[in-house]
Specification:
The protein has 2 domains: about 180 residues, Rossmann fold (3-Layer(aba) Sandwich), CATH 3.40.50; about 210 residues, Rossmann fold (3-Layer(aba) Sandwich). The protein has 16 helices and 18 strands. The strands form 3 sheets. It has a 10-stranded mixed β-sheet, with helices on both faces. A 6-stranded parallel β-sheet has the order 15-14-13-16-17-18, sandwiched between helices. Helix 2 packs across helix 3, helix 3 crosses helix 4 and helix 10 runs parallel beside helix 11. About 40% of the residues lie in helices and about 20% in strands. With about 525 residues, the chain is of the alpha/beta class. It binds ligand L263DTV3 and uridine-5'-diphosphate. The site of uridine-5'-diphosphate has 17 residues, from helix 1, strand 13, strand 14, helix 12 and helix 13. The site of the ligand O=P(O)(O)OC[C@H]1O[C@H](O[C@H]2O[C@H](CO)[C@@H](O)[C@H](O)[C@H]2O)[C@H](O)[C@@H](O)[C@@H]1O has 18 residues, from strand 1 and helix 1.
């Protein structure tokens, strides 16, 4: 009998790792399996970068116990990492979404601390690190994404010191007073410090992280740079080659790189006649109200959906607007539905929607048009075009791509963006109407101001917002990050207002520079 050796895995020079793949394995009710685009801002953001670099994407296919070989999807090489039903329960729904997610979002919901969830998180991070190591060629650039994989940089550095390792955190990094609750706070910091560059959405997040490093590890930090001693095995250093005299440390950069969207593609869609026609139809289906307010969110307690419903309901109660004049369209896309906090939230939101519609609706018209679904992108663009006011009331949000997508679609320089100051996007989108969503009166005031804003002011504000989003699109985001990661970037070549704080010119990865198409 001839035994064939398994084929050597294909290796890549650029590897992205994220919890979710850019495609989801979906089983239809008739039992047929197919691949669908998976939801969420991360996927939207990284797709164009992957295509430009012909790299590989390592991640989970969205279903339990799927053992799949690597395959190609839309020109992207996909390397699936299997998760068992127990991994999903403990690593994904548990530690990622019921411990880290609430902890990193201002403890809006109570984080649950369970030691078996942590053990599962360590195991799954190990599986991801092994999968990345297996497909990365010598000296490859690896870009690890998000809070689900914070231990991967250190694990990779231990096993593959030849790699250049970047990490980007898509969600906020909490202030030390909150972060320090985490029983595994030191291990997470050590995990992240395995990277050469650690990116955050906001300057405040990067500052929170470097403060945690000082408090927990005592390593010196200066601006965006952290000196990690080469003899400290807790951060997986094991110097690659001899320790240089006079520099017994690696320099890790921790700074902000605000993520963005593929603005051109949203603008292109917004100009398509069929999408413009669909926007008109949406208005008609809603009974042609004078004004449409739009909210689009995953059904997540961080998004402040209850706060916006409260403000909207009170405006109707006060008689400041009538249900016939203004309709609130709320898209609440299903998310993490097996996590208890998310189930409770759904009940709470749907009760509020029912009350408002019951109190202020008529037979022919509901003031809140509520949709518990996830729409494809063309429908999203039509909704953005149909909306006079976009309402983003996040209580805490890493970035909020929806705000940027709304701006990118408004080729008519019209529409008003109301934006929470607790969303990362508010650092850039200063000409939005910025609100504190906890201040219900302030929120009501902003809604009325948006509804009555003169055309000239809407135009001036929208033009300024659009300039920002088009100048700082997702390509600028990934170029800025990869330029710093690969040592190809000089401070002056990066957008001054993205990277305006101090950048240490000596701060280069330990491995030799490697070229990547950014
Ligand atoms: O994968 P899920 O658990 O279904 O969640 C979807 C994604 O949500 C999070 O998005 C974050 O990243 C966005 C892009 O940077 C940012 O705009 C937003 O503020 C963040 O919340 C999460 O970080 C992703 O990992 C999830 O895939
Ligand atoms: O029905 C929906 C709702 C949302 N989205 C997309 O999901 C992403 C949400 O990203 P955001 O950063 O606003 O929040 P996240 O869900 O990642 O926390 C955006 O690209 C939206 O266009 C979508 O395609 N269909």
């Amino acid at each position: 009998m001839t035994v064939q050796a398994p084929a050597a895995p294909q290796r890549y020079s650029f590897v992205v790792a994220s919890n979710r793949l850019p495609v989801d394995r979906v089983i239809d009710p008739d039992g047929t399996a197919r691949w669908a685009n998976s939801p969420g801002g991360l996927v939207t953001a990284l797709e164009p970068v992957m295509r430009a670099n012909n790299g590989a994407w390592v991640g989970w296919a969205g279903q339990p116990d799927l053992q799949l070989d690597p395959f190609e999807s839309d020109g992207i090489s996909i390397v699936p990492v299997p998760l068992t039903a127990d991994d999903i329960r403990m690593y994904y729904e548990g530690f990622s979404n019921d411990t880290l997610w609430p902890l990193y979002h201002d403890v809006i919901s109570h984080p649950q601390y369970h030691r078996e969830w942590w053990d599962s998180y360590v195991q799954v991070n190990r599986r991801f690190a092994d999968a990345v190591a297996e497909v990365s060629e010598q000296g490859a650039v690896v870009w690890v994404q998000d809070y689900q994989l914070q231990l991967v940089p250190r694990m990779l550095r231990e096993d593959r010191p030849d790699l250049t390792i970047g990490f980007f955190n898509h969600i906020p990094f909490p202030p030390y007073g909150i972060y320090s609750q985490l029983p595994w706070r030191t291990q997470i910091i050590e995990g992240l410090l395995g990277a050469d560059v650690i990116g955050f959405q906001r300057l405040a997040d990067a500052n929170n992280f470097t403060r945690a490093v000082r408090r927990l590890k005592g390593f010196p930090t200066k601006g965006a740079t952290i000196e990690v001693p080469l003899i400290d095995e807790s951060v997986g250093v094991r110097a690659h080659g001899p320790i240089p005299e006079g520099k017994p440390f690696r320099t890790v950069i921790a700074r902000h790189f605000p993520i963005s969207i593929d603005a051109d593609s949203f603008e292109e869609m917004a100009r398509r006649p069929e999408i413009i026609e669909r926007a008109r139809q949406i208005r008609e289906e809603l009974g042609n109200p004078e004004r449409i307010i739009l909210g689009v969110d995953r059904l997540d307690y961080t998004k402040g959906i209850a706060h916006r419903l409260k403000a909207f309901g009170e405006l109707l109660r006060d008689g400041s607007m009538t249900a016939g004049e203004v309709t609130l369209v709320q898209v609440a896309s299903p998310s993490r539905e097996r996590v208890e906090a998310y189930r409770q939230l759904r009940d709470e939101i749907e009760l509020m929607v029912g009350r408002i519609n019951g109190d202020y609706g008529t037979i022919g018209h509901a003031p809140v048009s509520y949709h518990h679904t996830s729409y494809p992108r063309d429908e999203m663009v039509a909704l953005y075009l149909a909306a006079d006011v976009m309402l983003v009331t996040a209580l805490r949000d890493g970035m909020n791509l929806v705000a940027k997508e709304y701006v990118a679609t408004r080729t008519d320089d019209d529409g008003v963006l109301i934006l929470s100051e607790f969303a990362g996007a508010s650092d850039e989108l200063k000409r939005a109407l910025l609100v504190n969503p906890h201040d219900i009166d302030g929120l009501k005031h902003a809604i009325l101001r948006a509804l009555h804003m003169p055309r000239a002011e809407r135009r001036t504000r929208m033009r300024s917002l659009r300039r920002r989003v088009f100048e700082h699109d997702v390509a600028a985001w990934s170029s800025a990050f990869l330029a710093v990661l690969t040592g190809n970037g000089h401070a002056e070549s990066l957008q001054a207002d993205i990277l305006h704080d101090e950048l240490d010119e000596d701060a280069q990865p330990e491995t030799g520079p490697m070229t990547i198409d950014v």
